[in-house]
Specification:
293 residues, alpha+beta, Phosphorylase Kinase, domain 1, Aminoglycoside 3'-phosphotransferase, Chain: A, domain 2, 2 domains, five-stranded antiparallel β-sheet, three-stranded antiparallel β-sheet, 45% helix
């Protein structure tokens, strides 16, 4: 069964319609873990997500569902129509707008900052993202041990976390606030794809925004703080970006090992190497901050 056929099957079950009333329009770009499609049901647009190959060990749909229920009153996410806490299949209303990965200008930074601050200041409960435990869990998915360079960088990250960054208070964060997961509807920014949400340092979300270009995160931080960030605040977002690229290095390595490079025509080995190189670059920047050494 093709992915499009699986999407159609989900739609017929959730909406109780015949297959000929389902139009699978297109797949959304981006993401390493999901198949997400725009679907029309009787001419009304919806988004259907199926967890991708191997993605079921990277995320926890039950926890995601609980987080989605917690953030629903904030109206930051698209309305969820259906969510299966076991399989991760999710159906939601389509948010009309442009993902910030496609187009962004200076006027949108304040709107992004407003959305993230609304989430962070809500002080919602939730499950801890478990930074250290998550890395270990992802490492165990690999058949071959990560490289020596990875472990050297990880140990330096752990040292800085234990000695300094673990002291910052945690709030419920989106966890993957990269530009492709943010949509500008005109009047506000929507935060989509919450499978990596969890209790974390709010600066973690700022760091995620630098996925395409880290200058985006540095610029967003100024709007988030409503002032020019100091050296330690800039180091803080670089520190979490270092973690993120170490995390995605392991995830990309795992996807290469299970054959997704060939299946999806994406060179996950090259992607993983690029993430590891970025981790080294962020560490080199952090080494220049005296208090962290």
């Amino acid at each position: 069964m093709s992915i499009e056929q699986r999407i159609t099957k989900v739609a017929t079950k959730v909406f109780q319609v015949e297959a000929d009333q389902v139009q699978v329009i297109s797949r959304f770009k981006g993401g390493m873990s999901n198949y997400t499609y725009l679907v029309h049901i009787q001419n009304t647009p919806y988004v259907i997500r199926i967890i991708g190959d191997g993605g079921e060990v990277l995320v926890n749909p039950d926890i995601e569902k609980k987080h989605l229920e917690l953030v629903e009153p904030l109206e930051l996410n698209s309305k969820v129509i259906y969510m299966n806490p076991k399989t991760g299949v999710k159906v939601s209303q389509y948010v009309k707008g442009l993902p910030l990965s496609e187009k962004m200008d200076d006027s949108q930074y304040p709107k992004v900052a407003t959305a993230l601050k609304k989430l962070h200041k809500a002080q919602l409960p939730g499950h801890d993202y478990e930074l250290k435990m998550r890395l270990r869990r992802y490492e165990k998915l690999l058949k071959s041990a990560p490289s020596t360079q990875y472990y050297v960088l990880k140990l330096q990250w752990l040292r800085m976390y234990d000695n300094y960054f673990s002291n910052f208070p945690k709030v419920l964060c989106h966890g993957d606030a990269q530009r492709s997961n943010l949509v500008d509807s005109g009047d506000k920014i929507y935060l989509l794809d919450w499978e990596f949400a969890g209790l974390n340092d709010p600066f973690y979300d700022i760091s995620s925004f630098g996925n395409i270009d880290f200058e985006d995160a540095e610029k967003l931080l100024s709007f988030y703080l409503e002032r020019k960030p100091n050296t330690m605040e800039l180091a803080r977002i670089r520190f979490y970006r270092m973690y993120q690229v170490l995390q995605w290095h392991i995830v990309a390595s795992y996807k290469d090992e299970i054959g997704l490079s060939e299946k999806l025509h994406l060179d996950f080995k090259a992607i993983s190497e690029r993430y590891l190189k970025l981790a080294a670059q962020f560490y080199n920047q952090l080494k220049e901050v005296d208090v962290l050494n």
